[in-house]
Design goal:
GO terms for molecular function: fructose-bisphosphate aldolase activity. The chain is an alpha/beta fold. 52% of the residues lie in helices and 15% in strands. The chain is built from 12 helices and 8 strands. Helix 2 (28-41) packs across helix 12 and helix 6 (110-126) packs parallel to helix 8 (157-167). The radius of gyration is 18 Å and the shape is globular. 47% of the residues are buried.
Length: 284
């Protein structure tokens, strides 16, 4: 099977109240672990690739690995640019074979974000590529952040609805209180914002910063209208912890396969547990 746009599975996720995982690809072992877990559970999924990961892996290898995974698995897999910063980088990815892109215009003014996102949607749609937009700032949650400051970064439902209506994105990331990276405490997720936006638009809300969010909060988010959840840090932690443990156990190891195999196996378990939690098993 060829790579598909997110529209192959997101409408079904929205209608049937499950979420599709975006698991970020950082190297070959990540890509293999993610697809192995998805094969086992017959789940659609999204390979997320940040601009940093793209630089690290190279765009040709990134696309080739994702295409190989789609061919081997027969699963609906989207290859998605994560937090694309410009029209140019989005087009570069589409030309190289990405089936989906995120344009993150959240650091622009609201009107400018709408204008730039619309341009990406117009170009991407013509090529059958899906687009994720972002509204509000998804940052790092600090323990000492004041409530006012926190709320200042959250998406306003009426703005999110207008953003959707004007841009026609295929899914919308809104700042609802989650953050990238691991949490010091528990995140404070504003389910009311998710629900207000999700009820008013036909496409799913995207939850960034899904690593370390308690399972119950994930279930509540999906019930409120989240249809795509991004996970990266938990796989990075599982990978690195296992490499560290393998090296600590045997100082004479020099064959990378000896420490990358347990790392990859640990990531398979992380991804399987997320797929089960998100409810996307048997939805391929
Ligand atoms: Zn993100």
């Amino acid at each position: 099977m060829a790579l598909v746009s997110m529209n192959e599975f997101l409408p079904k996720a929205k209608a049937n109240k499950f979420a599709v995982g975006q698991f970020n690809m950082n190297n070959l072992e990540f890509a293999q672990a993610i697809v192995e877990a998805a094969i086992e559970l017959k789940s659609p999924f999204i390979y997320g690739v940040s601009e940093g990961a793209l630089k690290y892996m190279g765009i040709e290898f990134t696309v080739a690995i994702a295409e190989a995974a789609a061919k081997k698995s027969g699963l609906p897999i989207a290859l998605h640019l994560d937090h694309g910063s410009s029209f140019e980088v989005a087009m570069k990815c589409i030309r190289a074979g990405f089936s989906s892109v995120m344009f993150d215009g959240s650091h622009y003014s609201f009107e400018e974000n709408i204008r730039l996102t619309k341009e990406v949607v117009k170009a991407a749609r013509a090529m059958g590529v899906s687009v994720e937009g972002e509204l509000g700032t998804i940052g790092g949650v600090e323990d000492d952040i004041s409530v006012d400051e926190e709320h200042a970064n959250l998406a306003k439902p009426e703005e999110a609805i207008r953003f959707y209506e004007e841009t026609g994105v295929d899914c919308l990331a809104i700042a609802v209180g989650t953050a990238h990276g691991m949490y010091a405490g528990e995140p404070n997720i504003h389910f009311d914002i998710i629900e207000a936006v999700s009820k008013a638009i036909p496409v799913p809300v995207v939850l960034h910063g899904g690593s370390g969010v308690p399972d119950e909060m994930i279930r509540k988010s999906i019930a409120a209208g989240v249809g795509k959840i991004n996970v990266n840090t938990e796989n990075q932690v599982a990978c690195t912890e296992n490499i560290r443990a393998a090296l600590a156990k045997d100082a004479k190891i020099y064959d990378p396969r000896k420490y990358l195999t347990p790392a990859r196996n640990a990531m398979i378990e992380v991804v399987k547990s997320k797929i089960q939690l998100f409810g996307s098993s048997n939805q391929a």
